[in-house]
Amino acid sequence: MKLQINKVSRAITYALASTASMGMLTTSAFAAGEDEAKEKNIEKIAVVGSRAAPRSVGDSPVPIDIIGGDELAKGGGDDMLELLKGSVPSLNVHQNPISDAASLVRPANLRGLPADSTLILLNGKRRHRSSVIAFLGGGINDGAQGPDISTIPSIALKQVEVLRDGAAAQYGSDAIAGVINFVLKDADEGGSFSVKKGQFFEGDGDTTTYEGNVGLPFSDNGFANLSFQYKEADATSRSVQRPDAQAFTDAGLEGVRNPAQVWGAPEIKDDISLFGNVGLELSNNDEFYMFGNYSERDVKGGFYYRNPTTRPGVYGGVIRNVNGTPMRRDPNDVEQQKLWDAANPTILVGSLDGYEQQLDCPVVEIGANGLPDQAGLDSLTAANCFAFNQVLPAGFTPFFGGNITDTSFTVGTKGEIDEGYFEGAYFDISGSVGRNESRYFITNTVNASLGPDSPQDFSPGKYIQLEKNFNADISKGYDFDLAYDVNIAAGLEWHEESFEVIAGDEASFIPGPLTQQGFGIGSNGFPGFQPSAAGVFTRRNYGAYLDVETPFTDEFLMGWALRFEDYDSFGSTTNYKVTAQYQATDDLSFRGSISTGFRAPTVGQANVSNVQTNLSSGVLVDSALLPPTNPIAVQKGGTELQPEESESYTLGAVYQSGDLFLTIDYYNIEVTDRISQSEKIELSLADKETLKAAGVPNVDGLAQVSFFTNDFDTTTQGVDVVANYSMDLLDGYSTFAFAYNWNETTVDKSSDITGVFKVKRLEEDLPKHRSSFTWSSQWETISSFVRANYFGEYQGVHVDYDATAKTADASVTIDAEVTYFATDSISISVGANNLFDQEPEKLDFFNKTQIPNNNWGGKYYETSPYGINGGFYYVKATYTF
């Protein structure tokens, strides 16, 4: 490319010698011949990690994985997170069933850190974050707000570069764990179209995907590369009937769903992604570029089953004094709930004539068969009283979902300055805007306080994340009589981030006439955002950096980076990074880095408030998430959020000889003041009065409160091993790739509001050992791909309840694909993920006395690192032109 500058012989030499990190020669390209396939791997050069000329992965002083677009296309899944997880063992992804908005935008963890500790780039430019905050992210992702990677289709990508090293001094906030750069295709001709159909071995989760890519000329000196993906996926269920729901069916209650509560992947409808990448040479030294996307999808999943005799605020009823007289029930008094008289339970009944008449309503007791007394229910109408058992006698399970819309647009110019003091310097000036909107809906539920007038479908509101960036970068090589030019780069960045809360429909949050009588307020399961919580919250910051690479000798290279950032909320921060690489022999080099980093608290984390329905010791309760500066949050230990800070270092070695490529890297990351959601803190009556005085609405229905806080310090360390080898085998051409990751996190310090179980989840939920072994083969008309994935022991957890936790066994899954090239243009692929249907760890706590006699309908621990859905098979047809 004409615009690449400072292409020293060192970079060219390693570009020719290197094949790929993590592997992986692509087999779909091999139909054109073995020589062409080898030739394509010369292009495996990374943009991230250096401000000088793009480097091969072997020439980089920091560890970088490069996964080609064709490699990503292998595999049954269409979610980018799943595709990357198979290629990068230090990347972990959970499915998060029944986890509020975390089910809609799944978080991912690079090197054991939360989703918002990895910086996401698109064509080297900062990608905006999602509007979804993982309120119930579970363990490591609890409270994370990272970008939505799933909007990026593999067919749009030329390659993905994964920088496994802290890079905040180079790129700014969020790069504590590393950087993932998605590079869009830039061909000006050709393209492909494919159709894929798949299904899980269990017979559900039917998935259909259509995708296409086309490269077009843009005048005589440019390109326009366009891609699309459209897919739909049915929901899955890995559930058993809850014992309480089954008991109702056995007792003759009609209308109980089976299963009453579903654990599985959500339904995805009308998932469309459009990506465009445009480039135009303005002269021999300059070019204009433009890229962006529009993505939208509808996601729908399930929530917890509402038991028609015990669910507080909807069905749970009156408790009695020791003398047998009814006592007005306080739905927020947890201790009072524990005193429920099991010998004489009743359902919740409200008077339609008002609060003063509630105790005059008939008492409807629960009979020996576990069902409300029918005669008692029949007597309510005459007394002008009401119970939800009259309209929803079998209980109900809310369905929660959302419409996720994601758009971005970047425009800029880059090239080489051809005159003046900076003659020969490379410049890049760009502006970008990104927007992510999540509009929530919840159906098959009630606002119990509205009584018989409650609708059952609600629109709880929207979150909108909007980000704007402006960047100006310049880079130039200077002759200081070293081995070759010293590259000096500098730049400026301006960034504006806003988080908007739009209130829900009135029925989703309004307190109805039965509020005082113990009936819950708001759409049960996910109450709507109230007008008092709505608004736009904005923050601006600017940054400046200096980056120098000094080749002291042909064998010894060092890099230096310094970055200053200033935020209008919490102030400024300065970070540095030092890297080094020493070429010991022609085949062996050593590398390392030391750096500091930071992650600014998101505007959403600092300002959002919400009400969640969650399990507390196995019981459903309503919990309020408050801004950390709210008076009650301050009273419970909350303070204004400060940035997370990190110190990290890596040490590694690279060996490459002929067709063998091997890297080994150790990393150590210390993070202080990590931001997370606090433990759910029980509210006293005095706390509620303080909340009311602060203007928090609907306080009486809350049992707990939480807030975002700089909660704890951690040390994460690990080792990455990557090996690749290519050879002629069985009359074809084969590539073998091995990757291994050991990762361990230790909580060094935690605040008084961090629970012991939360610490345990941070340290033990993710497997400490992960590895993969891949064999890709190519013959004249057939290619094959087999990958074995190893997942070490991990902590099995269900419903975020410590009594369910256990150490789950290590497992191995196998992925495989075979492609037949019928013609030069048409190919057919058949494959499977988890080919032998390896089951995740099964729940085994059913008989533990400390757990309520209810397993919540699950079959497997939800923290399984390879999901709970089992094997998936697919067939794919591709037309290439």
Automatic annotation (TrEMBL):
Transmembrane segments: none annotated. InterPro entries: Beta-barrel_TonB, Beta-barrel_TonB_sf, Plug_dom, Plug_dom_sf, TonB-dep_rcpt-like. SUPFAM superfamilies: Porins (SSF56935). Its main location: membrane. It is a multi-pass membrane protein. Keywords: Cell outer membrane, Membrane, Receptor, Signal, TonB box, Transmembrane, Transmembrane beta strand, Transport. Residues 404-835 form the TonB-dependent receptor-like beta-barrel domain. Residues 1-31 form the signal peptide. It is found in: Cell outer membrane. Residues 59-179 form the TonB-dependent receptor plug domain. Belongs to the TonB-dependent receptor family. This is TonB-dependent receptor. It comes from Pseudoalteromonas aurantia.
